[in-house]
Design brief:
DNA-binding; 9-stranded mixed beta sheet; alpha+beta
Length: 267
DNA sequence: CAATGATCCTGTCCGC
DNA sequence: TGCGGACAGGATCATT
């Protein structure tokens, strides 16, 4: 499940592969995977990518033709660079074509991923309300304190809410709460500023460690060069039987998601 | 407004 | 060996 470190790793892979290349189009092989804004006037291709950006779990490719591609991988989306590809792969839902015949395949078995083509000045219409970047300077304990006050939902659900902080998913939230020593089901609004400091600190720590490892590969996620990330080797609670101290891990469902935590280390 | 639950979708895994 | 069912989960929409 691509979260911030995986999306960032994919972005850097795209940057390596697509820098200075001329995009000639986006083909769609599954209804609804590619969405083209009605506000697009004239064909935005051929065009180079002027800027590569990530916002939360969204990839933003700004074309020099004043249009942008918004890509969301959701759970099983993968981008794979392919020199001169032939017929679409079995789970290939879309394809970004390049001048010269090469392409980036969008492979997504569960079909939830999207590629949106929209004028660059109209991005906001296709991006939801997103909270601060967890590695940015405005993600602070004070911010979290304010965002969570009087909220009764479990802290785990709050950290998964992209409107509160943009880019975290199930794996990293489990790991962040373990390192912070906080149970995932604690009501978000009742957590002290001191403990929120732990959350902010460990959010940065976990994300930075994962970025350094090229992300986490637990199921489908691969880098654009189809290599695995390595952070799954450093997970302490997610899909584990025991925490690093040997206590047995509990798995409860919160917001319909499995939530791994150590009942001894997390209070 | 806040919180919860259903929904989308298919590959994988488990038990019988 | 094969089958049914549970499960995985990000974001959105509907309901309470």
């Amino acid at each position: 499940m691509p979260e911030l470190p995986e999306v960032q790793t994919v972005l850097e892979g795209l940057q390596n592969v697509l820098k200075d290349r001329i995009l000639t189009g986006v083909e769609c092989y599954y209804p609804g995977t590619v969405i083209e804004s009605a506000a697009i006037s004239g064909c935005p291709f051929p065009a180079r990518i002027g800027e590569f950006q990530r916002r939360g779990k969204y990839l933003l490719l700004h074309l020099e033709s004043a249009s942008s591609l918004i890509i969301h991988l959701r759970m099983t989306g993968k981008l794979v660079y392919e020199p001169n590809p032939e017929e679409p792969h079995k789970h290939e839902r879309a394809r970004i074509t390049l001048q010269g015949g090469d392409a980036v395949r969008f492979i997504d078995p569960r079909t939830f991923g999207k590629i949106i083509l929209t004028p660059s000045n109209n991005l906001a219409q296709y991006l939801p309300d997103l909270g601060p970047e967890p590695l940015g300077t405005d993600f602070t304990p004070q911010y979290l304190h304010k965002a969570l006050q009087r909220r009764s939902m479990p802290i785990k659900n709050a950290l998964l809410d992209q409107r509160i902080v943009a880019g975290l998913g199930n794996i990293y939230v489990c790991e962040i709460l373990y390192r912070s020593g906080i149970r995932p089901d604690l009501p978000a609004g009742k957590i002290s500023l001191t403990r929120l400091k732990q959350i902010v600190r460990h959010t940065r720590e976990v994300l930075n460690e994962s970025l350094a490892a090229g992300g986490t590969s637990v199921s489908d996620y691969r880098r654009i060069d189809d290599k695995s990330g390595e952070f799954q080797n450093f997970l302490r609670v997610y899909q584990k039987d025991n925490c690093p101290l040997g206590h047995s891990i509990s798995n409860i469902r919160l917001g319909g998601r499995s939530s791994f935590y150590c009942p001894v280390c997390q209070k």
